[in-house]
Amino acid sequence: MESVEVLVAHIQGLFRSSDEVSQLHSLLKQSEDALRSHADRLVPFLSQIDPSIHTLGYLFLLEAYSSESISREETSGFLLSVVEFINSCSTEQIRLAPEKFISVCKIFKDQVMQLGVPMQGIAPMRMAIRKLQTSTEQLTTLHSDYLLLCLLAKCYKAGLSILDDDIFEVDHLRDHFLYCYYGGMINIGLKRFEKALECLHNAVTAPMTTLNAIAVEAYKKYILVSLILNGQVPSFPKYTSSAALRNLKSYTQDSNLGLVKQVLSSLYKHNIQRLTQTYLTLSLQDIANVAQLNSPKEAEMRVLQMIQDGEIFATINQKDGMVSFHEDPEQYKTCGMTEHIDFSIQRLMVLSKKLSSLDEHLSCDPTYLSKIGKERQRFDFDEFDSVPHKFMQRAYLFIRKGSPNGVVRHCPQTILSSSIMIVLEKRVTMRR
């Protein structure tokens, strides 16, 4: 086994071509045990290597160094080294050893959390995600770590930089569960309850053979957010796994005090909104009575707040204490609305092409076709489930990218094929 000094000399010399980098990669893999055995003396060697040029070698040394416990005195230097590496590393080279890059980033995340400075990890982790991804449609195992840092730092808007991506590629379902759960919490923090409900719904209805703790926690918040947004407890769609259908409804008690308070407040709003569907004018006293408010003054304050938030359209005649309800004044003919509709149509067209491509890919998959051939006598073709696990996840993500009820309404991120939806629901049912 070569010494660390000789290995560093190889790192500095093998970087000019893809063949040299491949040769270096093999050499580094053979030297992993030696690097770990000398983890406590690797720091000086890191200063001899340029991470922007010798990315692969620097990564192996940095990962070996971080594999041992890092003392508090060494933490600051380690964090600086990781930040410098993430910002300057070669994307092509880190993808030769993605597991090592992920390991370093996760240790970095743990360190900033232990120091109580999650804000310092947000920008480097976002950069790490972008360098690790082959496209913005890929969900990496670092997505959930990044969102966790955003939650701990209460920097919710930073989380939108990846939550607004269209995710269609998932390698591990656990990453999907955490991504949806943390995404739901970030959207709750931003009062984006419709998006929060979508994220939590995706966690609750994702394919699972046994109930997991993440889905349970997501379900608790899912119920409360649905009450805030829609005033009712949602029902499960057909494609929900049997594990979730059997067990989740027994998990409804939790210490989500903040959300519970918002649920109580939203109930008054829903009561007032229902009045707009029945009456043209109504007194503040009547509104207070029907909505179960304490006084006409409280009714007036709530109506004014809802008018300001765009939740209802009404005017108040304070002289006689009457409220007049109006129709939505939006005529959908402004330049801004036209641009919004055009943008939505373009996104729908792109997603439609992706869904068609996925459908074709599934139909041509050898495992899929082989399974159908073997089981044709036992099941009807349309109801038979033979989609491989990874492809099922991708199809699920395509279909669940839209509104929580599985219906395309105002969300421009979704395009559904009704025939694919029906087939997929049957297949998920058969998987159970």
Element layout with pairings:
Elements: H1 4-13, H2 18-30, H3 32-37, H4 43-46, H5 55-66, H6 72-88, H7 91-94, H8 98-114, H9 119-132, E1 138-139, H10 143-152, H11 156-163, E2 169-170, H12 173-189, H13 193-205, H14 213-230, H15 242-247, H16 257-276, E3 281-283, H17 284-290, H18 296-308, E4 314-317, E5 322-325, H19 335-364, H20 366-375, H21 389-399, H22 418-431
Parallel strand pairs: 1-2
Antiparallel strand pairs: 3-5, 4-5
How would you portray this structure in words?
Residues 379-392 and 398-432 have low confidence and may be disordered. The chain is mainly α. The protein contains 22 helices and five strands. Helix 12 (173-189) packs parallel to helix 14. It has helices at 4-13, 18-30, 32-37, 43-46, 55-66, 72-88, 91-94, 98-114, 119-132, 143-152, 156-163, 173-189, 193-205, 213-230, 242-247, 257-276, 284-290, 296-308, 335-364, 366-375, 389-399, 418-431, and strands at 138-139, 169-170, 281-283, 314-317, 322-325. A three-stranded antiparallel β-sheet has the order 3-5-4. It has a two-stranded parallel sheet with strand order 1-2.
Poorly predicted parts: 379-392, 398-432
Number of strands: 5
**SSE class:** mainly alpha
**What composes the largest sheet?**
3 strands, antiparallel
C-alpha-based Rg, rounded? 27 Å
Count of DSSP H/I helices: 22
Rounded average pLDDT = 84
Order of helices and strands: HHHHHHHHHEHHEHHHHHEHHEEHHHH
Helix content: 55-70%
